[in-house]
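COURSE: Structural Biology Practicum
ASSIGNMENT: Worksheet 4, Part C
STUDENT ID: 0417
INSTRUCTIONS: Below are two proteins. For each, the amino acid sequence is given first, followed by its structure token string. Answer the questions at the end about the second protein only.

PROTEIN I
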Amino acid sequence: MAESKVRKAAAKPAVKAVAKPTKPESHLAMVRRARKINRELAELYPYAHPELDFDSPFQLLVATVLSAQTTDLRVNQTTPVLFAKYPTPEDMAAAVPEELEEIIRPTGFFPAKAKSLLGLSAAVRDRYDGEVPGRLEDLVTLPGVGRKTANVVLGNAFGAAGMTVLASAA
């Protein structure tokens, strides 16, 4: 008898749940959702701030470029000497590449980083009158600056909302 109940249950076709198609989220709805997430994150992490030391958007931009593949501690140990010698984009753009490389050597990958710093400094000097631009679209045109670096600068130097995903040290 139990066997016949199993056969009857197996003979019945399975009911398929049909998912209702969802409408694409409007731009306004997406902005509202992002702002809500940003508020909730600010409540959860009220003391979130960058570990890099900086006094200006230019210093944060340079420090963030230097932070690739090294620790913030190492960058913070390197930048005081760097900014004492090259405090402005104009000064850094005019740097002798070998001297710049020697200062940033402890951060690793110093030839590539020096090339990026020289290029971004010249671009800030020439295209933005020595002021770091406050728009993502402009920042990502600078040598050595990708979306992550741009968002770090926008969020921490300009107070713009943005999402920066950092690799865990764990």
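PROTEIN II
(use this one for the questions)
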Amino acid sequence: MENMNNSDQNYVKWFRNAAPYINAHRGKTVVLMFGGEAVLHPNFANIIHDISLLRSLGVKLVVVHGARPQIEDRIAQRGINGYVENNVRVTDADTLGAVKDATGSLRLHIEALLSTGLANSPMHGSQIRVSTGNFVIAKPMGVREGIDFKYTGSVRRIDSDGINMQLDYGSIVLLSPIGYSPTGEVFNLALEDVAAQTAIALKADKLITLTEDEGLLDETGQLIKSCSVRRVNTLLDEKDCHVRQLLLRAIIQSGENGVERCHCVSYQSDTALLQELFTRDGAGTLIAKDHKEQLSTATIDDVAGILELLGPLETEGILVKRSRELLEVEIDKFIVLKKEDVIIACAALYPYTDAKTGEVACVAIHPDYRKGNRGSRLMTALEDEAKLQQLASIFVLTTVSSHWFLEQGFIEQSMNKLPESKQKMYNFQRNSKVFVKDI
């Protein structure tokens, strides 16, 4: 057998690591939004290729494009005295003509790119069907503070049944920032409004936003790798440019109305979109929907609640018994999930820094709350903590939960994969199985 070079081996390893993410996204509904600036960028051809790849991997895609720079260009070309009030364009009849021209031309351009199937191109054989139509029902913004915004509108309703029908046919649905009224009028809409309302109406699994920056930046200009919708609320600043405010509000509105995940990545990077979706560390910002049940690091006040949660499992021999004194000493190793200040789940991470690994222990969920994704949330939090501590892997010893840990990405290993100090403490009477997960 011909030996593979390092580059080939790294590719195969990456492909294997990506497989769980590929499976997780198959059949999911994703709304992808980008502004007209992204279309003008030299990297847009790669974005089109990645959209094609996502569709070929079974993702149900709704693509929402903007056209602000293209509209500005048309207005300038036609010598229209366009004007903006309170950061919102007033769309009169002449401006609406420019809007129709810009968005229509841009939509056709995107459709043409998605139809490319030349040999030796990344989209060879893709045969993508693109569906467009009057899926967005709009209403006029009307008169505000004495200003008549005329043909500027907002989303009234999304034809989710029509969109889902096209998605089920295997089509990519392409939406422009244009809406239609039941009376036959056309309205100029904000890209962000269309994308957010579409994601909410479809109960989309994800909203992905492509922006100039690598993701959401904090107050010091540093990339935020992951955060909650609540954190995005703190980033809203009336002094920021209006487009950034629209972006943040779209993310907040989506997260507060059922969209589980939002991603913000750069349209300037030719790898960011795929990195964000199919690698462990991502490339931009992941925003998770706020949960009424809050995860936090345990404090000394949580000892009693943790003991109550662990007690039945210790009695059954599923977990090793811990005394109150030991738990008080080790309380900083625990995370807890609380609902109305009552602990309903917990888990712990014990680092073995010299071995670059950590032990997952005391994973417990109250019997009334074992449905849902609470266990996965605990594991994600432990993995994040392990990464902060610069650990390369985590491991667990278990006697009864093997299948669950396999579902979380752990792999069964022999005892000699444990840190040496842990091997010396191994209890052969319990005969626990060893599972390891690289992070």
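ANSWER KEY EXCERPT:
Q1: The mean pLDDT is 87.
Q2: The two ends are 31 Å apart (CA to CA).
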